[in-house]
Amino acid sequence: MTFGEQPAYLRVAGDLRKKIVDGSLPPHTRLPSQARIRKDYGVSDTVALEARKVLMAEGLVEGRSGSGTYVRDRPSPRRLARAGYLSAGGGSTPFRQEQADSAAQGSWDSRSAQEEADETVAGRLGIEFGDRVMCTRYVFRDAGRPMMLSTSWEPLTVTGRTPVMLPEEGPLGGSGVVERMAAIDVVVDNVSEDVSARPGLAEELLALGGVPGHVVMVIQRTYYASGRAVETADIVVPADRYRVAYHLPVK
């Protein structure tokens, strides 16, 4: 096989990637061994190994202990709607709004605990480093499969010693930030979301069922009431399974 200017390991990886994408190497098929790649492409062991590493880093293949390396399933990304926040009828997040549909199969688990705000959280909430916040960690599931993680922080200077101090407990547990804040006379009037992508952390990928090297989308969301941040959250979504779609009405 003739190679041009591109490094040989990238060309080998590119050819194998093409076969995976076009179905020549379908899901659950064993990837050619390092020796086979070396022979078929006329490259060294080092090149063959690096090509396999590229495919693994891209999440196209996975290693199975004592068995070899196999092509992974490539699901078509599903739409994850971000269509706004309803102030009437609950003030729920977009995920909870979607789950109001009788056909939806979503569920979530959560746990809350008081923490001291680190510098990042303090900066986003406009509070002092070390101030107390209520931290709530969520695992959202779609038909039983983990599909989204969320960690939220609320300043206890706002919710402390109120009936809504625990987001998922009490008379308004699970109602959403907008409605909960309204119950203590805090009117949420603005929400910001910044979306970025990065390699998933080991604990995130373990929780989401990903493999090392997988990319996740991170939605950094903050609720404001008259310019004051009353909740901020990091929402983590596997980029290979979901695409974030926004519907923004024109006013």
TrEMBL record:
SUPFAM superfamilies: Chorismate lyase-like, Winged helix' DNA-binding domain. The keyword Acetylation does not apply. Residues 94-111 have a biased composition (Polar residues). Residues 6-74 form the HTH gntR-type domain. One of its GO terms (biological process) is negative regulation of DNA-templated transcription. One of its GO terms (molecular function) is DNA binding. Residues 84-119 are annotated as: Disordered. InterPro entries: Bact_HTH_transcr_reg, Chorismate_lyase_/UTRA_dom_sf, Tscrpt_reg_HTH_GntR, UTRA, WH-like_DNA-bd_sf, WH_DNA-bd_sf. It comes from the Bacteria. Transmembrane segments: none annotated. Keywords: DNA-binding, Transcription, Transcription regulation. PANTHER family: GNTR-FAMILY TRANSCRIPTIONAL REGULATOR, MANNOSYL-D-GLYCERATE TRANSPORT/METABOLISM SYSTEM REPRESSOR MNGR-RELATED. This is GntR family transcriptional regulator.
